[in-house]
Specification:
- The protein has 205 residues and is mainly beta.
- It is built from two helices and twelve strands.
- It is globular.
Length: 205
């Protein structure tokens, strides 16, 4: 698993506890009520062996229909919902892949709308770190999913604020969104990456 979240599109029937279902439904309704947003984001990766961490941060842009851009210091990941461009400035290369097959996808829509179909969802009733925050855990009902569990946190406005993914090897990926700005006029062109001259292009489609 690379230093980014791994997402795989799957389909199935939903099996959820009542309180977990309610949280997921409200989160889905909130997502459906907006056209897009921008936010600051950070991702911390904790290894299973020594619990050392690797932290990255940057800007995150989202637009409906799986369009997103992740801007980091040396890396930019861009998706128009069909194609993903993963540009690494250190190696002066861009890897192009299908959105359905891409292993470095930051598609929140898959966690919110697709993964619950194959998971048991339950509310985690712990003292919230932020007042009004809700937490739900998704546990796969099939071995085909590439994670042991996913935890989603929502704020008072029922918008996702944090997410934790534990992969089959025990590596933990923790993502946090902050300073969200909703319904900005983000042009579709922002979600299409045009490789500049002089960089290596690896097309995996």
């Amino acid at each position: 698993m690379k230093n980014t979240l791994i997402f795989i599109v799957l389909a199935g029937s939903i099996v959820c506890g009542q309180s977990g279902t309610e949280i997921i439904k409200k989160l889905q309704n909130r997502f459906n009520s907006i056209s897009g947003f921008s936010a600051n984001f950070s991702q911390t990766i904790f290894t299973s062996k020594d619990q050392s961490s690797n932290k990255t941060s940057g800007k995150f842009f989202y637009k409906r229909k799986n369009k997103f851009v992740v801007e980091m210091k040396n890396q930019t990941i861009t998706s128009d919902g069909k194609t993903v461009w993963n540009y690494d400035a250190r190696f002066k290369r861009v890897v192009i892949s299908s959105a359905e097959d891409d292993p470095t996808s930051f598609s929140l829509e898959r966690f919110i709308f697709e993964y619950p179909k194959n998971c048991t969802a339950k509310e985690i009733k712990e003292v919230p770190a932020v007042p009004g925050e809700k937490e739900v855990e998704l546990v796969p009902g099939t071995q085909n999913l590439e994670f042991k569990s996913v935890r989603l946190w929502t704020g008072k406005d029922w918008m996702i604020s944090r997410m934790e993914v534990i992969d089959p090897g025990g590596v933990r990926y923790f993502v946090e969104l902050s300073d969200l700005s909703y319904n900005q006029k983000l042009p579709d062109s922002k979600f299409i990456y045009s490789p500049p001259q002089g960089i290596k292009i690896i097309d995996l489609r």
